[in-house]
Fold each of these.
Amino acid sequence: MPTRPCWVEIRTRSLEENYRFLQSLAAPHAELLAIVKANAYGHSLDLCAPAAVRAGARWLGVTSVEEGVAARALCPEARILVIGGIFPGQGAAVVEHGLTPVAWERWQLDELESAAHAAGAPAGSLPVHLEIDTGMSRQGVSPEQIGAALARFVPESPLKLEGVMTHLFAADEADGAVTEAQLAQMAEVLRRVEDTGLYAEWFNVGSSAALLAGQAGEIAALADRHGMKTMMRPGLALYGLAPQFDPGFEPREPASLTAARAQLQPVLSWKTRVTSLRSVPAGAVVGYNGTFVASEPMRLALLAVGYADGLDRRLGNRFSLLVRGVRAPLVGRISMDQAVLDVTEIPGVEAGDEVVILGTQGTETITALDHAEAAGTIPWEVFTRIGQRVQRVAV
Ligand SMILES: *Cc1c(COP(=O)(O)O)cnc(C)c1O
């Protein structure tokens, strides 16, 4: 059955090329884990997780055990890291589906250990990545308290310390001082791990910004000292967008960032169609609360997209979309399921015309960053808020 025309097109080939490009930036220092959390940043886990694996990703990153179970069904061979940690009662699913949990709370280690025992798992068979809080105050053991966590990884435990992880949350800042301080803390943590007689295979750090800031070499040097391998975790860049960096970098931004701007390809386009057209006289009110009043006779196009599809309500009267290759302003408030474009100046617009909400039409392009700037948010939020009812189609 034909559906309401509001859809997202996903170019999985672009995602594959982005992954290979990013891996070439990381090589030989780091292996990349492909972040596919939150339905692959709204791009469809079903389409994107297998594409990342085709491109060579051996590791996928998801938020939750539920997302991990979904990713496992799609990618039977991949390692799947649950970066948001586990919740009470989820240990059994971690074991059953072969997921790799990030953990930092004592009760999480208890939960995993008892689930592994219940499944008859042998010693050292359940890999865990231990998160360290190096300044974000979000999740992770503080470096001072790491001793108690490390003491859990005794040889007879089913738990194995496979990774030591942290989040470099300020890699986009020009002076790099926060990242330096975090890496100094991690150097100390890795020394503690070694002193305890443990060996973790992976030093697991950073996001797109840390990778594109060209820090893989410096990070890997730290891991090398302990015979560890480095894993980095790009998300946004995989979907074709280089994060905005602190303008303090300009004009000497990192070469890897410049290369990324030229190489990365957007994976997602978001489209709708003109539902119907009407001509209104001067004085006509458009949409809820009459926030737009026609100052002259106008031609208006109704669209099958609204805020329930993820089109930010704050874009009403302050953004434009593409129809017939031209930018047409959104007028009036955005409704839950509909929005209105002013097409007065665009000849020939007809019902059924394709409208690009995000993406390219002719020579014009609207990016997730354009949406984010108009709505006062960040591209990550723009992508992840595209509604569940918007179909994702591979192209
Ligand atoms: C989401 C996330 C990432 C990816 O971040 P990007 O900025 O999108 O590259 C990396 N690590 C962790 C822990 C995350 O939660």
Note: The chain has a mean pLDDT of 96.
Amino acid sequence: MLGRERQLLLDAFDSNWIAPLGPHVNAFEAEFAQRVGVAHAAALSSGTAALHLALLLVGVQPGDSVVTSSFTFAATANAIKYASARPVFIDSDWSSWNMDPALLREYLERTRREGRMPKAVLAVDIVGQCCDYQSIGAICREFEVPLIEDAAEALGATFQGRPAGSFGDIACFSFNGNKIITTSGGGMLVTPRADWVAQARHLATQARDPAPHYEHTQVGYNYRMSNLLAAIGRGQLETLDEHVRRRRGHFAAYEQAFEGWAGISLMPEIPGGRSSRWLTIALIDPSKFGVDREAVRKRLEEHNIESRPAWKPMHCQPVFADCEAVGGAVSEQIFAQGLCLPSGSSLTSEQLNRVIRVLEGLR
Ligand SMILES: *Cc1c(COP(=O)(O)O)cnc(C)c1O
């Protein structure tokens, strides 16, 4: 917490709007939509809830397939399963570590020929970096497949000057405790379509039809955000630029320290993109660095410094073993060699230096 979060939370508390609706929810939605440059926003209980609703809004039905990135957090693929659809995992490219547009095109051409086109593309902006939306956006328009953006990790990033979340027909964000801004838990769905945001709010409040009694013609969900948490979110949003500044600063410090070191490299920044550097991920090539990713992680652990392997790709997860996958070697290598280094907004330069000294000792 960096700003007015406490003050806004107490305001919400004192107003007695202790509910999954209220003035802070409305204000958070309006301020958030403004910030990401999309007309409408719905504040929800989690990013996963936002993804689930997004899939329903674009018309995903049981048995449909949905194309997504293999290199992501399980929540992306879980949401596809909640919609009773089948995830198809596309590998990353080396320039962004996000969905490879060439593999996406190849897959859509093949499924069009075979008459089994996916119902949606769910592209993930991984660890604070936008996809190549120039390519992916054009491909989705050409094949007339709706594009959903999982921007849960990428609030504050841009691509070609446009904010993460402004590229999809719908985009989803997360305010889970570990994200760049947090409400302890929460999410946001944004879309240029007024009818979709209205439907998202409807589905998120148990799909109550307009009637004096409780009338339902659809299955709904309990997915709305609390007014208390929205108040925290408003305070956090005001400090977003400061969070991005700090995280990019951590990345720059690691980058500078590793200059000239063999066998250690950092996640690239996609041309035209400005990553939020939500996390700094290093790739450790054991043949050049001398030890492998796990040895580095364990040494840090011995010094009471937490680090974590990069996401294990979804096509390698037991729970998704029966799903279709396109490529996979890139995300597998990122997982084998990738280590998320301490990246939190509140890290001090002494703490960063401590991490760097431990790494230096391994060379
Ligand atoms: C965190 C995350 C989510 C889920 O958000 P929650 O708010 O935790 O439900 C979805 N996708 C990605 C890529 C994430 O990192």
Note: The chain has two domains: 5-239, 241-360.
